[in-house]
Amino acid sequence: MDYQFQKIEKDWQKFWAENKTFRADNQSGKPKYYVLDMFPYPSGAGLHVGHPLGYIASDIFARYKRLKGFNVLHPMGYDSFGLPAEQYAIQTGQHPSVTTEDNIATYRRQLDQIGFSFDWDREVRTSSPDYYKWTQWIFMQLFNSYYDKDADKAQSIAKLVAHFESNGSAGVNAVCDEEVLSFTADEWKAFSAQQQQAELLKYRLTYLRESTVNWCAALGTVLANDEVKDGFSERGGYPVEQKKMMQWSMRITAYAQRLLQGLDHIDWPEPLKEMQRNWIGKSVGASVRFPLEASPKSSPKERTSEEGSNSLSFGEGRGEAASYIEVFTTRVDTVFGVSFLVIAPEHELVAELTTPGQKADIETYIAQTKKKSELDRMADTKTVSGAFTGSYVTNPLNGEKVPVWIADYVLAGYGTGAVMAVPSGDQRDFLFAKHFNLPIIPIIDIQNIEIEADPTKEGKYINSDFINGLGYKEATAAVVARLEELGLGKAKVNFRMRDAIFGRQRYWGEPVPVYFKDGLPYLIEEQHLPLLLPEIDKYLPTESGEPPLGRATDWSYKAEGKVSPIGEDLEGAEAFYAYELSTMPGWAGSSWYWYRYMDAHNDQEFASREAIEYWKDVDLYIGGSEHATGHLLYSRFWNKFLKDIGKVVEEEPFKKLINQGMIQGRSNFVYRLIDEEGKGTNTFVSHGLIKEYKTSPLHVDVNIVENEVLNVNKFKAWREDFADAEFILENGKYICGVEVEKMSKSKFNVVNPDDLIARYGADTLRMYEMFLGPLEQSKPWNTNGIEGVFKFLRKFWKLFHDADFNFNVSDEAPTKAELKSLHKIIQKVEQDIERFSFNTSVSSFMIAVNELTDLKCSKRAILQELVITLAPYAPHICEELWTLLGNPAGTISTAAYPIFNPAYLVEDEFSYPVSFNGKMKTNVSLSLTMETADIEAAVLANADVQKYLDGKTPKKVIVVKGRIVNIVI
RNA sequence: GCUCAGAUGGUGGAACUGGUAGACACGCAGGACUUAAAAUCCUGUUCCCGUUAAAGGAGUGCGGGUUCGAUUCCCGCUCUGAGUACCA
């Protein structure tokens, strides 16, 4: 039979499913290997040809590892909570779970067609209650934990309570809100339960607080920083504004240092690690307090907690007048160059600092900055603007009077929202000083500040009191020491990363397992998990602007017992408490899912101890780099937390990570002829001739174009108005234009894997996706060339068959040449897979099959091994041939990868390339056992070489044994 | 602006540690088979000069450098893509 891929592929996919060929066991004598793909959000559009790229690569790797004797865990699931299903629900009234279900069915069908070796018994769906029960459970553990800086890990909140009970707040070194109370043990005990709860909330790893959020009115929800691009929502492109809201947050900043350090120990692409480093944004510097002019010197040592908190930290606490402004600086050595202070327009002290005389100015300026959108503010970095408050602070080291300004180049969200301006060393301060005529004080002898600021660290200090004459390092140390002595500053590490907002005003997400009592949040009891998403009448905010869950009629909790059903006797109604109305964000379910695969059906734990200790972590994770600062950071955070509380064993979840490149679209164009009146005609000009005519380009469906040649008949059938289109051809063909764009329906450049599989089969698709180029490189999809891979598989099939397609394999002993071809490919594929260079192994397979075809090789000894090496790439055809070779069905998946024998590659002769001054001219074939001196003599004696020498004596002859001869003349 | 990645034939790409640049495939051209087409097979295909062959010259974004020898290493520049954006 000819290569009948459709039948073969269907048969084997059925066989794998029925026999659970790829089921992984949680115990095995084999070493474990965990290959994970980033699970997809099941969108309504289904898979396009770009999606499976990473899945194919990981599948090849997983299948290869099985052949290499590993117990491989290779699961797949769905990140099935998300906005699109909800948007669709709003439009159609259809429950998101219904559309999600449908979309998953489509995904599953498409995935199955490609022949992946997933263990489907372990499938997870983040929107399934069996799954989100454990997402909620992890949330509860976070709520019940705080970060102890001395132990440098998360600890049970009970431990903190015990500390408060015996020692009060003294000696607590924890990551917390900036405004925590100082109290004794007795005072703590005297607090009401409510006061205690309010205080503990300031320490919990997930907590509620009023924060400035990215509010997207069009989507009706808040967005995480990584979901906002240039002031617009990443999804949909709607405007995003800053708004203050009560929000659940995750204290990820507690882990900033560990998240940073962990990067040094994982095998991830360097650019991705760099992105995380930038996102975390560690800067080492100092905090410095500038006392306010009029007020008496503060006694700042009483403050309990600003350390480690990343948030704004102003004043002495609530209700009291501030006595200083705190700034963060990375150049504390330049403190004698401070000629003014700048605080953000949103800074808490602005009103207090503004003198009556300056009030009008300041108010005008604030109004002006408020009007500017986030986008304008970012785009416009050149215009200098600001206003003087009228107040002064004192330089803590030289007592000089320093004016306080406000300006929008200082961001409220970073550091303390205030900077000490050193115009001689900082370009922004320099421009500001020039613009407003403020003094610019040189502080380093070699500084050149004629035209711009000079941030040098070289040279000696001048105009700088006790550090005059010192160098950078000593000066910094001396200034910090003096500030500490004065109690007006200290060395400080600042992180740019903020705590992550953990709530969406949306329906289609995990409910937060929290109810409210007297305005404070409490966890529901663990036995009541999962807290199921309630049914609601429509998926919109309530009339009063509450999130959609506010529409649920029975959305409350009875602490001692059960969830209140509607219409229940209202006796004891005061014991029913309202649930949280927001739901968890998209990243909640994806921040731990790799553990659920380890033990997907466990209803006692998120995964059993045994399963976690066996599988430990993900050995290879493949996915897109777009998740660099979202999913991949949050997952590392949750993993570290789970490690801290002893639930998992590894500090980092993903040992090795590979980013597959994005597949871009490749659009084709036709060119409509424009007539004299400037109107479009129904005549189309071939691309090569468009310079001679007036035309306008028009996207054309790439599926009716082959090798840039338009199928004219299909084009006429494509759209009614083209039915009687006419064409101006070149060489009898209509050639289309080409452009690389995003793959999207509106550009008619979407290529569907289903169509390609129907035409060429999954094995061809798999190999072609790999053949396209290096996995990590982004590239446009181009179906041109898929024929080459298809031909290769047919040729491969033919090796096992005679001219009439009868299966025909001989048991003759292989020749040296055949063994050489085989072992070349065994070695090559092994090396290529280990370095994830799948495209080069496809070429090598082609070379091997070409060679064996030329050798007319049909020997079992060769082909049986070749089939195993190809099986990870083209599993269906290999299963079929493996069975035809007489092996039990399905056993190729666990066959042993052939052992490479270098002896078969040993050559005794080598054709030395001989170059003259580095330019290759001729070859001389010599024995590989020859020594350098003999090679030189033999080469020089060669007739061709003599000809090139043309009687000249070589100046030098370089001989590299087994490689090259270079003659210098 | 900063950070990172990249630039090789008509196209996708290969060349792994500095050692024959262009493997493999597409496309194109020519040929075989065929009444014809499709399919299949064979040959050629970096560019320039050359009637063919030979011979010669140029050549991995641009300009320099190191080296017997550079796509590979170093310096400077241009362009493309990604991330980030007044981070004090």
TrEMBL record:
Region of interest: Disordered: 291-316
Single GO term (MF): aminoacyl-tRNA deacylase activity
GO cellular component, one term: cytosol
Listed name of the protein: Leucine--tRNA ligase
Coiled-coil annotated residue ranges, if any: none
Listed Pfam families: Anticodon_1, tRNA-synt_1_2, tRNA-synt_1g
Positions of the Leucyl-tRNA synthetase editing domain: 277-483
Top EC group: ligase
Residue span(s) of domain Methionyl/Valyl/Leucyl/Isoleucyl-tRNA synthetase anticodon-binding: 819-931
NCBIfam families attached to this UniProt entry: leuS_bact (TIGR00396)
One example of a Gene Ontology biological process annotation: leucyl-tRNA aminoacylation
Record keywords, A-Z: Aminoacyl-tRNA synthetase, ATP-binding, Cytoplasm, Ligase, Nucleotide-binding, Protein biosynthesis
Main location: cytoplasm
EC number: 6.1.1.4
PANTHER family, sorted: LEUCINE--TRNA LIGASE, MITOCHONDRIAL (PTHR43740:SF2), LEUCYL-TRNA SYNTHETASE (PTHR43740)
CDD domains: Anticodon_Ia_Leu_BEm
Family stated for the protein in its record: Belongs to the class-I aminoacyl-tRNA synthetase family.
InterPro entries linked: aa-tRNA-synth_I_CS, Leu-tRNA-ligase, Leu_tRNA-synth_edit, M/V/L/I-tRNA-synth_anticd-bd, Methionyl/Leucyl_tRNA_Synth, Rossmann-like_a/b/a_fold, tRNAsynth_Ia_anticodon-bd, Val/Leu/Ile-tRNA-synth_edit
Subcellular compartments: Cytoplasm
Ranges where the Methionyl/Leucyl tRNA synthetase domain occurs: 38-145
UniProt motif 'KMSKS' region: location: 742-746
Binding-site residues, ATP: 745
